[in-house]
Amino acid sequence: MFDWFRRKDEPPRQFPDNDAAFAHACTMGYRLLLNALVPGLVVGEGRRGSEGERCFRLRLAGPQGALDMWGCTMADAPGYPQVGDLVAFRIVRIATELPEDASLIGYIACKLEPVLEGRKGWRIAVNYTPPHLKPELRL
């Protein structure tokens, strides 16, 4: 009886490639909030930092379409993405005093598959978050 009120699960939506998945993510209206995971596309590779982090040029799915910016992996990340990969960028701080392309401070948290699983979100292929990093607890 209670299944009447439950929303039916949608079947996973498979995209042919990362570009098509990112184009769809740009239409979903992601909000740029603290601790949010925002899908992005890796469009270029930058330098390697002095502590071991790897920098990449990203195109993030923002509320008004794509937003170009630089992002990096954490220093002791177990892996790193390649150009053309669909990734999730975790926002740690929003610095309003910086220019728009540098105002989002965070890191590349994981690589995504071009599969959208309804309300669950994008399917994770590879996790780039170091195992010692604990999730933030908000009360």
General description of the model:
The protein is mainly beta and 139 residues long. It has one domain (12-125): OB fold (Dihydrolipoamide Acetyltransferase, E2P) (Beta Barrel), CATH 2.40.50.140. It is 6% helix and 42% strand. It has one helix and seven strands; from the N terminus they run E-H-E-E-E-E-E-E. It has one helix at residues 18-26; strands at residues 13-14, 37-48, 54-62, 65-72, 86-94, 104-116, 122-127. Strands 1, 2, 3, 4, 5, 6 and 7 form a seven-stranded antiparallel beta sheet that branches. It is globular, with a radius of gyration of 16 Å. The model has no long low-confidence stretch (mean pLDDT 86).
Q: What are the key terms here?
A:
139 residues; mainly beta; OB fold (Dihydrolipoamide Acetyltransferase, E2P); 7-stranded antiparallel sheet; 7 strands; globular
Q: Tell me the Rg in angstroms.
A: 16 Å
Domains (count): 1
Please tell me the overall pLDDT. Answer: 86
Range of helix content: under 10%
Gross geometry: globular
CATH superfamily: Nucleic acid-binding proteins
Please give the number of β-strands: 7
Flag low-confidence runs. Answer: none
- The CATH topology is given as OB fold (Dihydrolipoamide Acetyltransferase, E2P)
DSSP helical segment count = 1
> What is the CATH class?
Mainly Beta
How far apart lie the N and C ends?
A: 34 Å
Order of helices and strands: EHEEEEEE
> Which structural class fits the helix and strand makeup?
mainly beta
The major β-sheet equals:
7 strands, antiparallel
CATH architecture label name: Beta Barrel
Amount of beta strand: 35-45%
